[in-house]
Specification:
25% strand; 6-stranded mixed sheet; single chain; alpha+beta; 592 residues; 10-stranded mixed sheet
Length: 592
């Protein structure tokens, strides 16, 4: 019986392997439609527009080779051309007349190339290699051949380059995958191979069992002497009962296995559906605009890639205490607070680090709707599975096409922070100008107004504009806190609080109720001076470490940076301004 099972499995394996191999040899077809061209570029960059890229479908592999360094990237056409700016570039497109890819000479008039570029402020192009730009939806670099899989539409273009110093690679290939005529052939071969291995194991098991049965037995009746004739055992071929033929369990197993194999084989030979079995690459799909107007600054998947890169860089800077590395991805208030923390931890390793910058999961993204620069993106990263990781609000800014996004504001959101409805991320939100008069307070007034509330409390003229119900920052550093701290040093020193605008620009994106999410910065300065002749003051904690001063007869000045995110309702609304999140920390300390 065991041999029957093993033989049955071998038969099933043979059928499956036969079907799979036969399909691959006799019925397989080309896997790709390929267009290749070898050119002699006259510029550092080559551009292929969306019409050429989608000539045979939206999914394709783009390859470039022939240079010491080969780079391929793709993104929205306006972003590709904005990155190139005033630099020369070659164009590769499909010629219906020749039936192949051809290169056009560099054209100054980009309208003639079938593309439109949005003019941006003229800047010195200090970055010459497109590798690593946040504008690309996908990219690849290689010393031999760079290949990037893409899923794109006619609104996108490809940029091909070397290192930005030498001409672009001259060997370019576009390959569109075709639907397979034998989509199950590989499956048959894999299953058949696995069944063959199973059959081999079963055969060895049956052989071992047979040897064990025919070998010496312990106990029981002693073996008969050799001189006595033994009754010949029934052969395996005569084991079936006489009369009408029946199927034993082993035979049934074989029959079912062969029937199953034939059924699968027949289904594998049935007509295929278009697209079934096609090899689909794994690039990022692109959001499709369904509303007239400028596109969003980034797509959702593009934002995820950008945040991963930023998080990797900043977290490495946190580990290495490198303000220089952090400056490649942070700017303004976010960089100031990080740099001061590095200096403090360098002087005293026991001091706590700032929370790490998380990259996912992104629970809220609010890109600016724009095709010019600078560009702004608001995002929230919240890991509900790990309550120890604070919910983080991130504001990113890209100043020019060739610069990457930098984090300007990095705040921890309030536990009960709620945001009114905003435009979908696939549409984008309009920018609100700093001096806008359509909000309860203009973005450029917001920092000073909130600073007045922190210092004066209910006596501030702006006190009634803010909803302070869930405002934990007012509780920590508001008027009551300041008065208590002044009283604690009044016997031996004077303590004064002052404020000025932080280094961050007021950045605001509109919500659908005509309000705005506004990010601003504020610096609070504590100045301590001795009040008695010959007396001195001694800074404490991180102020002492950062200033390097143990005591001063003149005084000490400590600056604390505040990064603030608000919801500001529209003018005429009965709602009040709400603090959504904040970060605070020492950014400077010095003797007077």
């Amino acid at each position: 019986m065991r041999f029957f099972i093993a033989i049955g499995v071998f038969i099933v394996a043979a059928v499956l392997l036969g079907i799979g191999i036969t399909q691959k040899i006799l019925f397989s077809s080309p896997e790709f439609v390929t267009q290749s061209v070898t050119i002699e570029p006259t510029a550092h960059y080559v551009v292929i527009n969306g019409k050429t890229l989608t000539a045979n479908g939206d999914i394709l592999n783009i390859s470039a080779s022939g240079a010491t360094t080969n780079f391929v990237g793709y993104g929205r056409t306006e972003d590709v051309l904005a990155w190139i700016g005033d630099d020369n570039y070659d164009i590769v497109s499909y010629s219906p007349k020749l039936g192949e890819l051809v290169m056009r000479e560099p054209e100054k008039n980009q309208e003639q190339a079938g593309m439109t570029v949005v003019n941006s402020d003229a800047v010195v192009q200090t970055i010459i290699s497109p590798a690593g730009s946040d504008l690309w939806l996908g990219e690849a670099s290689s010393d031999t051949m760079a290949t990037v899989p893409a899923n794109l539409d006619s609104s996108m273009s490809v940029i091909i380059a070397s290192d930005g110093l030498t001409d672009a690679p001259g060997k370019i290939t576009l390959a569109w995958p075709l639907p397979s005529r034998v989509p199950y052939a590989t499956t048959f071969v894999i299953i058949g191979g696995a069944m063959a291995l199973i059959g081999l194991v079963l055969y060895l098991w049956a052989l071992r069992h047979m040897r064990k049965q025919n070998g010496p037995r312990r106990g029981g009746k002693p073996p008969r002497p050799r001189g006595i004739d033994l009754i010949k055992p029934k052969s395996l071929t005569s084991a079936a009962p006489k009369g009408r033929r029946t199927l034993g369990r082993g035979s049934a197993f074989i029959a079912l296995g062969m029937a199953g194999a034939l059924a699968v084989g027949v289904s594998g030979c049935s007509p295929y559906q278009t697209g079934q079995g096609a090899q689909t690459p794994s690039p990022t799909p692109t959001d499709i605009q369904s509303v007239e107007g400028p596109p969003p600054a980034v797509t959702e998947l593009q934002l995820g890639r950008i945040l991963r890169n930023i998080s990797t860089t900043v977290n490495k800077a946190d580990k290495d205490l490198s303000a220089e590395l952090a400056a490649t991805r942070l700017v303004g208030p976010a960089l100031e607070m990080r740099s001061a923390n590095y200096a403090i931890r360098t002087a005293d390793a026991a001091q706590a680090a700032l929370p790490s910058l998380p990259a996912s999961p992104i629970t809220f993204d609010m890109p600016q709707a724009t095709d010019t620069w600078p560009r702004i993106v608001n995002a929230v990263v919240q890991n509900e599975a790990d309550p120890t990781v604070p919910t983080t609000g991130i504001v990113l800014v890209q100043n020019t096409p060739r610069e990457n996004y930098h984090v300007e504001y990095l705040v921890t959101l309030q536990p009960d922070a709620t945001v009114p409805t905003v435009a979908p991320a696939t549409v984008g939100s309009p920018l609100v100008q700093p001096d806008s008069k359509l909000l309860l307070l203009s973005p450029e007034e917001l920092s000073a107004a909130y600073g007045s509330v922190l210092t004066q409390g209910a006596d501030s003229p702006y006190y009634g504009l803010f909803d302070l119900t869930g405002d934990t920052l007012v509780t920590q550093v508001g008027r009551e806190y300041k008065e208590q701290k002044i009283a604690s040093v009044s016997e031996r020193a004077s303590l004064e609080f002052s404020q000025n605008a932080g280094s961050g620009l007021p950045l605001a994106l509109a919500t659908l109720d005509s309000g705005a999410i506004v990010s601003v910065s504020l610096n609070e300065i504590e100045t301590v001076k001795p009040t008695q002749a010959g007396a001195s003051v001694s800074p404490e904690g991180q102020a002492k470490i950062l200033s390097g001063i143990t005591s001063s007869t003149v005084g000490v000045e400590s600056t604390y940076g505040l990064q603030l995110a608000f919801y500001v309702p529209p003018l005429g609304s009965t709602d009040k301004i709400r603090l959504l999140g904040y970060s605070q920390g020492l950014i400077a300390a010095k003797g007077l």
